[in-house]
Amino acid sequence: MFLKHGKRILPFVVCLIFGGIIGKYADTPLPLFSLLAATAAFVFFGMELAVYLLLVALPFSFRYILPGRFEIQTPTEPLLGMLVAVYCGQKIVDCALRKAKSEDTFPFFVPLCLYIFVTFLSAINTPDLFGTLKGGLRATVYMLFSVIVHAVIRNRVALKRLFIAAFPSAAIAVIWTVIVLIYHIDAWQWTSAYRSAPFTNYSVYGAFTAIFFLVCLSRLLFDNSAYDRVLWMAWFVCFGVGLLMCFSRGVWLSVIVAVGFMLLQLGRGVTHKKILFTGAAGVVLLVCLNLPGVYDIIIERVSSAVDVSYASNRARLLRWGQALVMFLESPILGKGYGAFAMLYEEDVALVGSYTAQYQLGAHSEYLQVMAELGIVGLGVWIWLNFAFLRYGFRALRTIEDGFYRSIVIGLMAAEISLMVHFSVNNLLNGDAIGVPFWGIYGLLPAVVQMAVREKTIPETEDSV
User: Fold this and answer.
1) Which terminus of the chain is more exposed, N or C, with fewer CB under 10 A?
2) What is the pTM of this model?
3) How far apart are CA 298 and CA 223, in angstroms?
4) How far is the C-alpha of 170 from the C-alpha of 274, rounded, in Å?
5) Helix or strand or coil: residue 283?
6) Sign of CA dihedral 416, 421, 423, 428
């Protein structure tokens, strides 16, 4: 009885205590320690609920600066950290008590653990040991989120709750950003237009929006079962309009590749869907290109992709070159995780002060991994991506249920779009992309194993 009522009362007690601490000790680390303690208690009592809360808060997390060069995205990273800590603690206790293991194992556990190991091993060559270890620990927490999602999402009910948590929150963030961009329509193609939006720049915004757009498109194309099509069409329109407002060439390329992958999954019997979707997409693009001033901006943006005199292209080429030089200096284990930002010095005379103001990254996830973790780290990173795609394609050969097939294709398309985008940008360090990427990495095998179980023992829960 006490435990039952305690779970209801605990959040209010925590809020009162935490609010009092913030009010009295705002200039000390005590509020942060109190936040972590409260988060740990919350996660312990409801790990699944904590995952949903993390997804709800994800687009609206804010940077919290601490003394001593520490910073966290609140509440994303405290929740992530405590989820990993509690999960690992529970696993240790289960092993000590020799409890039975789950029949559904995480299929990517070996390459994931090896990638984490290489991340820390690269500290051998780092110019800043503390910085590399701190960054490696943060990256590990993000990576282990895939394991947690796989452990938490075990049935259709949990999957439905996941969608309910993630989609409305993401839609609000996208609509908010679209309104901000319309208000700053004169600066629509510049990162400065995003200053009042939940996203920091158009690459992050576009990559985030594309994930939800592709899942919605997959559901509409591949799921012929009974579900609320009006609602999913509304989500699709929302994220589709949001995607049209994005000005990132990397996002455009990644979405085109991902949509192409999805169209290839349509069989011969549904050619009309290919024609209908392609025709509708062509009409929408034609209308958008005929809006006043839009055509010239789009053509200029596309043509600038091969213009070496373009400032952002020069910056990208310089960073790619620096990544290659760093790799050649330490080809086996690289310069250490996070070392690119420590060692790279941007030449303002070559790229201009406008591009020099942004955080330092190699502008390519693959080249950055190669520079920081060497050929060993790059090999494991490619293994991680290949293992995901191979697992998904194998699952598509056996899954016949329209609902699960649509979810698997949507998750694969979303991950493919990120993999393509990573060739020209490095976005995994941010929570807005890091959480979805690693979350999908764990969600795909969870959905596939769910489909296998239902095929053997059909469940009666309502569809999502």
Assistant:
1) N
2) 0.85
3) 34
4) 27
5) helix
6) negative
